[in-house]
Fold each of these.
Amino acid sequence: MDRTKIDLWVGIFVALGAAALLGLAMKVGNLTSSKIGETYNVTAAYENIGSLKRHAPVKSAGVVVGRVNDIIFNTERYEAVVTLAIDKRYDFPADTFANIYTAGLLGEQYVGLEAGGDEVMLKEGDKIAKTQDAVVLEKMISQFLFSKASESESKDVAPVAVEAKVKSTELGDPPF
Amino acid sequence: MIKSRLFNSVIRTLTGIGHRVTERIWRLGAGARLFFLAIIYSGESFKRFQLTMREVYATGVMSLLIIIVSAFFVGMVLALQGYNILQKYGSSDAIGVFVSLTLVRELGPVVTALLFAGRAGTAITAEIGLMKTTEQLSAMEMMAVNPIARVIAPRFWAGVISMPILAALFSMVGILGGYLVAVPLIGVDDGAFWSQMQANVDVRLDIMNGLIKSVVFGVVCTMIALFQGYDAPPTAEGVSRATTRTVVISSLAVLGIDFVLTAFMLAS
């Protein structure tokens, strides 16, 4: 085996390895799409975060704009304080909603940001005031059964009652 | 009389255990010394890079075939088995995630290391063992050539360079094999296969950690092979035993270290 032939083969070998790594990073991983550069941190408090985890995505309009950086439990108010690292390219109004949603029926949970109309923007260290807890399946089912029961009790008032219930859950606090 | 005989046999057993333990510890220490010497004297293997290049050819390029073929089959089997389970839960689209995460995180580095120990590690041990048996290493020392700088270090770096490349190739080829089974054969949607994979495989958490694992395995496997060869008794039987030990110890070390590394990586 002479020298140039060895060099050629080793060159091919290393090039193949580099191509495989590049392929893994680009095609298998998501190096190209969801790269988050400089971030700023804002906090949001929840009574119940469900199964939200660190590094869970923060999305707005379905686009990943940040990650959940930290989750701590505040023993003074007995609530979860979630730190969101949001990409510096994206500014959000101070009255933005930070809701916890579930991807799919049983998928992972993420924080959804819904921009408000305030002219003051969120900056490093701010606290998002308007939050909505994770939906707990049991609560939702019991709520549904409760509304069904009241529906059968008084048929004529039922539609209004159901509508009122739905509205109140949209606002974020279950009626019990 | 009987009492003293019993006493003697107990003493002998204890001495035997002690001897075995100190022997193991001594060998571990000797291996660690060889490791540090290889690193200290590795200047020449970079100055005369041709030496290392030749060894990369012997360990890396020559292992390409076995790595690629087994990766292909491992990927195909993963896809078949994964589909069989996932379709019960109605999530056969997640097969891409299943195949890629299994390969990138675990099977890529581990199976590559096991194959590497069998294919390249044994060759290194046998070669160095035979060099020692035929007194080539002593001859080098007589000519004031440091055998660690000339023989050990280039092989060490070749192994460390080759392993991550082979592991990356293994993962990529395995994913292609899984793709071939999942998409054309079973009929999983092409777009779902790749997009689910891209959404769930993290470059830093999964691919980088796999790479770190394979570098560690490269160091461990190559070092074990080198030490077993360097330490082999200079007889035909000694070399053959050393070669066997290379495979056994490398495999056990890789599996054990893999558990520790995985525990650390998942914890952080």
Amino acid sequence: MDLWKRYIPVLFLLALVVAVQLITHFTETSYYLTQLTMSAYYSVVVIGLCVLMGYGGQISLGHAGFFAIGGYLAGALTTHSLLPIKSHGLVAFLHKIGLLVASKDLYGGDLLTVEPWAACIVAVFTAGIIALAIGGPVLKLKGHYLAMATLGFGIIIFRIALASAYFGEADGISGVPSFKLLPGLEVSGSFGARVLNYYIAWMVVIMGIILLLNLIHSRVGRALRSIHGAEEAANAMGVNTARYKLYIFVLSAVFAALAGVLVTHYNGGIGPSEAGVMKSVRYVAIVAVGGMANLWGALIMGIVLNFLSLRGVFGSYDDAVFGVILIVIMLFAPEGILNINPWQRLKSLFSLLAAKPGENTTE
Amino acid sequence: MQYLRMTPELFIQYLFAGITYGIIYAIVAIGFNIIYNTTGIINFAQGEFVMLGGMTAITMTAFMPMPLAIAVAVLITMVIGALIEMVFIRWLESPSVLRMIIITIGISILAREAALHTWGESVRALPYFIGNEVTSVTILGAKISPQVLWVIGVCSLMVAGLSLFFKFTSLGREMRACAANRRAATLCGINAKNMVTLSFVLSAGIGAVAGCVMSPITYSDYEMGPNLAIKGFTVAILGGLGNSLAAVAAGLLLGIIEAFSVSVLPLAFQDAIATSILLLILFVRPHGLFGSSEAAGLKEF
């Protein structure tokens, strides 16, 4: 029964995804699907971060870094030709076991690149390993220190992307080929594959959501909530807090990296702005607006805000809008926008105003 | 591993560059410390005060002589600091650390965006206080710009002034009392909330002064804040959070390491160095190089 209840929203989401596609089809507004696809991928980062922040209580200002590790590695591996070092033993071996593909570039030159599936696995795996390596020491920190350490990690990744010729410096990587998931099913930005890619993206989101829903209702989820509530108490009860925190940190990094890989193939490229600090802050903002420990809230806000931002609704005030959202939510509704009880808020605001004059006279 | 032949003159040159940047980082770190001591908050918008000070002064020089422009810019930044505290922080009742981190990040974004829409993306600079970019004085055989001496001099004066202020004036003592025990200070009749506002004013003020004196050599633009903030934070941690004199030593250390790193690493990685040091320190000695590990045992990292 309980299980059934858990999946009703998922079914509802599935129906909504299909309905939106049909509506855009019949109203001839299917150009919206492009932004909806992108929003879906960004939301994969957001829901991963939501479990880390909301349920685990660990802030990360470095998730754009993991997104970039995924995107940049997948982009670089599937774009840079290995032909010049073809005689190298390792390259020859990879070619032999079919992990490399030969293709032609725009000008008809021969290319020998890593197969997207292999590149994807390498990219996501690398992000996971890095998360595992830095997660140990980073998650020992709390509060400001944790925020600064993750911010620092994000900055290092950004600097590396910006300073290495291999990752295209300020230009980033372009000309990334499409990613054939299965025969006939490929992640690409080509016009004809728009509807298909919309469904691919949303399938990824739904699979992610199901995974996370099961996770937070499992032993791991209970352990995480106990860590958020009172870490010392959880520890004393025998919960291995360090291990669970690390586990969820790595999982959210993997989510971010996977999203990075898919976005890079979908857009056909990636630039250093994807690794920027503002992107990380934006993910945090979305989780905060969604209500921290609220997976569905994070997903809804992730879709809405990313969609509006990608449509260019905020114009040149894009970053400013996210700044305002962060401040307003944290000042007035730290429980998230979906958890507001308007009447309650209004009452407490009035009582605050009423208390103000009295407070000043205590001087 | 020597890519550049290090002559004594070059050594002095690098040393002065290191000290110049180092003392600026130290000022930012002290700004962090002042606010941290009275509130327990790390103000992520600290670098924005430096940016606002420099940029406002540059605009003001069009209307008035430079010393006056700098004074006005510092005053404006101090008022902004006070406003930020009053609007966003004063009325929150025991907010969680996570909430404060996110709010100050939001403030820093807003300050940056406001600067972007006011001044645009262009890089600006105040004129040199004495002479111009080619004027130099010779120290131990190395040619040093007088502006470098201005930066070092003004920042040293600020550090000295601040320690005198905290030690010998009653206002400074009241602030320290709030830092030590807010409740007890309130019981002694100190208005703790005003002390918090004052800490924002002070830290905005010293940030703005640093922003003005450094502007001729390092230039100012709307997005200089976060970079300075992360380095200032590195320095604050390196010295032990809350300890301002140690922050000066740590600032000089980081500045000099950065300056000499140019001779072994590509310039593009210079910023990554400070950040790597930050991570290393956080992992290994979160109480700082000069902090005691015993006292650190009582704190939460």
Amino acid sequence: MKQQSFIKVGLKFILAILALFYAANSYAGGGWPQPKGSGYFKLGQYSIIADSYFTPAGDIVDITTTGFHATYLYGEYGITDKLTTTVYFPFFSRSTLNRVEDASGELVQEGESVNSLGDTDIGFKYNIINKGVAVSALLTLGLPLGNPSGGASGLLQTGDGEFNQMISIDASKSFGGGKFYASAMLGFNNRTQGFSDEIRYGLEGGYHFSNFWAIMRIDGRTPLMNGNEDFIPNNGIFSNNIEFIGFNPELVYEVKDNWGFSVGAGFAVNAKRILAAPAYNAGIYLKI
Amino acid sequence: MNKWIYLLAIALSLTSCIGTDVLEEEIFPERVQIVSSADTIKVGESFQFIALFFNTSGEMEDVALNWRSLDNSIIEINQNGLATAVNGGTTQLIVEANAVSDTALVTAGAATVSSTNTDARTGTFQGLNNYRVEGSFKMELLGESSVRLSFEDDFVASNGPGLFIYLTNNENSISGGIELGELKETRGAQFYDFDQADLFNVYSYVMVYCKPFGVPFGRGAFEN
């Protein structure tokens, strides 16, 4: 149960835990392509439940608790040694808004939910360099298969309703006989339907020990503020002009050479116009 | 591998239910407020006094009101709030409900003069929680039963989901307030009518409020 007071000014510099909608851009294997005929596939679950929100100035305010959950399939497949195709398909997405009662138990506002497919990404990664450092260019097409106005109020979303196209450059290198790796990413996301375009960036490092990979990913998003000023975002998951720098630790356990599972979370030190809560991600992967 | 898939499914079902948020209880002092009053009542005539009771939630509640006059030889008042001037002079009329009361100093004289404010009430918006809400507003009576709240041409509000307009006595919440409807436009002149003229002088603030997520976007205090 949640106590609702309205402002928690001054929390912005705390390691506030963030609503990172990072699932879609955190798998793509960095600059390394999949060899021809090889693939990586993952069944995953992404969840966030938030009762706080980063305002446009980055302060945190309490909100009615809202949640977003996506069960997704992610895949990479090497069409050639140079060209890899990627798919992120949230085949079940669910957005919820809590019921609100006053202290005496009297209904203030009904809760609601919406279930649907989620926004889906299809990508094409072309490997440019693969000697020492692997560098690839990635084109990602964001298909608006989710529901941008669901629930009784029309305010719940499982997608943003816009078709976006992102181009990015990924570079990766391994060290220490494969025990370490590092990746960097820089991308431009062209958004439609009144959303501002975005610069996306990320750094990632991994360390292999026993059967585990310990991974830390730092990523960020900066809007170019060139969207429609009168555009009305429905909620804080698919909002416009989102801005954040996030830290995303992840642990991967290799059960066998060809499969294992992963758990991760998302945290932020600074954010605007996004839910302020931990985001969790877990999945099972298979390599072929 | 199958058991891990089952675990994922269980995690999904456990985390994705609709929960319940319980609002923190805001306690307001009980009060009774005379909202229709007279400075002077002509001797031999009557005037209808009206009072409203607000409970500890700040909400109007229909309770029994006890009206009395300190000097019945000057002005008499019945339990419905109908006051009659009997002889010249000045006295105090009192309304009580539960343990709270309100008073009006009334003269029995040569003419009846209402003391209820019927002039337009005005104010200016300011943003809250880093959201932009600007511009001026005015509230005026439309005849005897209706009220119109008008936003002027200079009104501008940040976009947001489910923005509604409230009258409230709390500068940071809508507790005890009344909802006038969904915000019609984020820019420019617009108005909101409601049929409770008794409430014309009751509330202190106009609030632009994101109803589904419970966040005030802006408010304006009445200056008169």
Amino acid sequence: MAKRNMVEALNLALRQEMERDPSVIVLGQDVGINGGVFRVTDGLHARFGGDRVLDTPLVESGILGSAMGMAIGGLKPVAEIQFDGFTFNAMAQLEGNVSRYRSRSRGRWTVPLVLRFPYGGGVRALEHHSEAREALYALPGVKVVIPSGPRNARSLLVAAIRDPDPVVFLEPKRSYRAFKEEVPDEEEVGVIGQAQVVRPGTDVTVVSWGAMMRPVLEAVENLAGEASVEVVDLLTLHPMDVATIATSVRKTGRLVVVQEGYRAFGPSSEVVAAVLDEVFWDLEAPIQRVTGYDVVTPYFARESLYLPDSARVQQAIRKTLNP
Amino acid sequence: MPAVTTFTIPYLQVLDEHGRLDAKKDPRPSREVALRLYHGMVRAREVDDRLLKLQRQGRIGTFAPTTGQEASSCAPALNLTDRDWLVVSFREAPAQLMRGIPLFRIFLYNAGFEEGNEVPEGSRTLPLAVIVASQALHAVGIGQAMNLRGEKDAAVLVFLGDGGTSQGDFYEAINLAGVWQVPVVFVIQNNQWAISTPLARQTRAETLAQKAVAAGIPGIRVDGNDALAMFRATREALDRARSGGGPTVIEAVTYRMRMHTTADDPKRYRDEAEVEAWKAKDPIPRFRGYLEKRGWWDAAREEALVSEVRKEIDDSVKEFEAEAERLLREHPDASFDHLYAVPPAALKAQREEFLRRVRGEA
């Protein structure tokens, strides 16, 4: 096994899938010779050449729209958009075509592509480079995957590439180089649609995903001895693994949901609604949500004040235990 | 087959890279105007140097350097009147400064403060656009508002980059500009590189100016490192726009001497020899030579200008750092400002909770 950060783990997934399947290609801005602005595609152009690692002009809608055509045309494109804030130029393609092509063509034409991009704050970047808007991609016909660490990033990207449907793959850029994990060279294929209980507990369930998993685990660490916390990492946002969440809340009777992005109409709302649907009578305390505020993503000078942190998570856990 | 249509793209250069003047094309700016332009260019270069130092010291964040593009950014902005509008993208600090955006705001923006976007009261200037080419449509809309409201003698100047010309928004903007005959001047900063993508991989078109042809509007290619050519081309285009003559696309051929942003390493994809070759075309010494020949400039004035500008920058850095410190202390909740004309109750409650927490009261 080798220790790898998330960038290296994603790079490994891409490299191995491209070796395994000649129909897998990569396209995006600066993904070739430059290796991607975060270096996720580093070395792929040298290894596989310009016909499989395509540097595109500055065209987000073009990247996703043409990737869809390539998918229909028999390739498995892995399209990169440079930053979260620039994906919105491609939203017309995602909503209007990519998400619904299997349906529109009554199963005749399918779109097995991956749209990957870095998301979220915490890296002191410019406007539109720190957005956490993951709910906006959760369209019927699309799967939304968000890894939280190097190992699941690698295995889930492999799964996303092999998935027969379009997968939007959000990479927590704050976690790109923040820590390393053992990531084996041998193949590991994640399961899309499956959440993971990353830490068992009995008193309260905390549900989160992506970059928020680190402050969540830190908070749980800080509460050791005070509370037995079960932590669920969603990993796939859409379709959501309600069964795993419900099983946990049925056991603990208490729920905290932690979301980086602004509060209104976010994934945390969906988690809460699902829990109310499934296990309302098992709840022992009001549900707590730790989220961003309903404001435009703050510029970086103040962003750390607005991003949920372990202190807020701890406070929310205590609140569910002492309602 | 007979040709249905053909086109030519004019090229304007007044002062070549060796400092030779094409006197017939000289727009002959007054001494006062020429010196203001030169001041703006030197000031912008010094600001860029300082921004780079501040970034390396961790006192500001990532920014997009402008060195090499002073002529193509300052000269168009110099031609604006107070009735004209300026719409910029993210690599146009020289134009913003020429327009009168206070220097400490530029520093503040690059240090990650929303307040860096504040435009002085009365100035028809938009905050910079990061979403590439999106601003081109806003410029067209402002121009069409002038048309519909019957506002005369004013124009809109909008900047974008060579990468921006690949975006759908750019094509939509020039198409609308042609259909609506708006008083808009598009200046495309063709600095040859969009991060690692060279122009030849951005488009197969021989020039960016010719993209105007498809929209039915005039396009001209200009030596973007020639301050006189940029001054003349934008003055003519703005005059035409103000007098009901419609839009123009100006391609300024220039060069991004530094990195895309400070998060970028051009050594991975660009040959240093190319950068060296463009150094010989630097717009600042070229224009200085012209001023010297006209007897408007000399070494003593140069020395005085540089020290004056550096003093101003020193003062602005102090002003910005004091303001940054004050804003963090006194106004952590700035993100709750200016979201709605009337803040909704739920947002007020969030703001109160935020402030209690930040002040350690919760």
